[in-house]
Amino acid sequence: MTGHGVAVVIGGYGAVGRVVATILARDPANEVVVAGRDLARAEALARTGPGGLTPRRFDLDDPRGLDGVLADAAVVVMCVEHRNEAVARACLDRGIAVVDISASADVLASIERLDATAKRTGTAAVLSVGLAPGLTNVLARRCTERLPSATSVDVTILLGTAGDHGPDSVRWTVAGLTAPPDRTRRPGRARVDLPGFGVRTAYPFPFSDQYTLTRTLGVPVTTRLCFDSGAVTAALFGLRGVGAFRLADRLGGARLLTGASSRLRLGGDRFVVHASATDRGGRQVWSAVTGRQEGHATGVVAAEIAIGLMGRRYPPGVHHIDQIVDAGEFLKTMQRHDLAVHEHPLPFPAEPSAGRLPVVPEGGEK
C-alpha cells in the first residue's frame, strides 16, 4: 500500500458506511467499493456521491463471494456486525488491513485473537473505531496523558434520541439495556457537566470501552450513558433498574423494543462524548467532543483510520484506536469534520475544591 488503492466498505450504504465511503472517495486516487446485499442502495450512493464509488453486491452469508470482493483491496472497513471475525481473518491472511466499527465486546475479543496472524503477514487491524468505542478511547487516552497520576477514568456518552442511528446501533443499545447486571462491577450513576447540556445524570452502561480501556490504560474505567432528553433517560433507566427490560427480553420482546427505539424522536441529534481522569489527590482533567449525528461521527473516525492504514502509518498487529493514534493530533483532525473539542483548562487549581468537578458519583444505581 502506497497511501492510495482500493478500499472496500462492507455495509457501505448504511448510516455509517456511506460517510466512510464518501470521505475516502474524495481522494481521486482511491477506488471505493460500496459492498452489501442491497445492490440498488449501493448503486444509488454511487450515483449521488463523489467519483470513485463502485457498487458491488456482496452477501456476508455467502463466503464464496469473499475472494472476489477482496481481490484488489488495500483496506476493508467493516460497517456491519455480522461474521466480523471471519472477514477479519480472511483479510489479515491476505495482507489486507482492517477497520472494524463493532461495539460488542465479544466481537472485539474474537478479532483481538488474530493478532499473531496480523503480525505474521505484516498487516494491521484497528478496533474500537467510532463514537463509543472510538472517540471515547481517544479522549480517555488524552486525559491520562494530561494527568499521568490518574487512578481512575470516567467516560460518559450523551446520545441524541433523534440522531442518525443505524439498525446495528439501535440493536446494540437495546441489548445493553436488557443485559443482566455485571456483578463484578458496581459503579453508581453520576452527575456529569456536559458541554452544551449542563449537568446531567448518567447511568452505568456496558460499553466495551470499560473493559478494553481498563486494560490498555492500566487504570479502572467506568462508562455511563444518558440521552439528550432527561425524561427519556429517567424512564429508560428507571425501567432497567426494576428489571423491566430483562423481563421483556425473556418474553421475546427485544425485537419490539428495538423497533420502538428506532422510532423514538423526543429530542435532537446532538451528542457529547466526555472523558475525565482523576488522581488520588482529587485533581481532575476532562476532554470532550460534541457534534451532530452519531453515525456521521462514527464514519468520520473510521474513514480517518482507513486513510492511516492505507498510508501504512500503523504497525502490524491488532490494535484498539487508543493504542495507535496520537490522541491530541487525532482530536485536531476531528475538528476538520465539524466536531468540536472541549477540554478542562490547565494548570490545575491549587486545591481540588477550587475547581468544578464535572463527574460526581452518586452511589449505587437506582
Helix content: 25-40%
Low-confidence stretches: 256-262, 347-357
For the record, what CATH class of the largest domain applies? Alpha Beta
Mean pLDDT: 85
Helices and strands, in order, run as: EHEHEHEHEHHEHEHEEHEHHHEEHEHEE
- From the 3D structure, determine the CATH topology of the largest domain: Dihydrodipicolinate Reductase, domain 2
Structurally, the number of domains stands at: 2
Largest sheet: 8 strands, mixed
Shape: globular
Which radius of gyration do the C-alpha atoms yield?
Answer: 20 Å
How would you portray this structure in words?
It is a single chain. The chain has 366 residues and is of the alpha/beta class. It folds into 2 domains: 6-130 and 296-328, Rossmann fold, CATH 3.40.50.720; 132-294 and 334-361, Dihydrodipicolinate Reductase, domain 2, CATH 3.30.360. It is 38% helix and 24% strand. It is built from 14 helices and 15 strands. It has helices at residues 17-25, 39-48, 66-70, 84-93, 105-112, 115-120, 131-146, 167-178, 209-217, 230-241, 244-250, 254-262, 294-310, 327-334, and strands spanning 6-10, 31-36, 53-57, 73-78, 97-100, 124-127, 150-159, 190-194, 198-204, 221-227, 270-279, 284-292, 317-320, 340-343, 359-361. Strands 14-12-11-7-10-9-8-15 form an 8-stranded mixed β-sheet. α4 (84-93) runs parallel beside α5 and α7 (131-146) packs across α14. The chain starts with 5 loop residues before the first strand and ends in a 5-residue tail after the last strand. The relative contact order is 0.17.
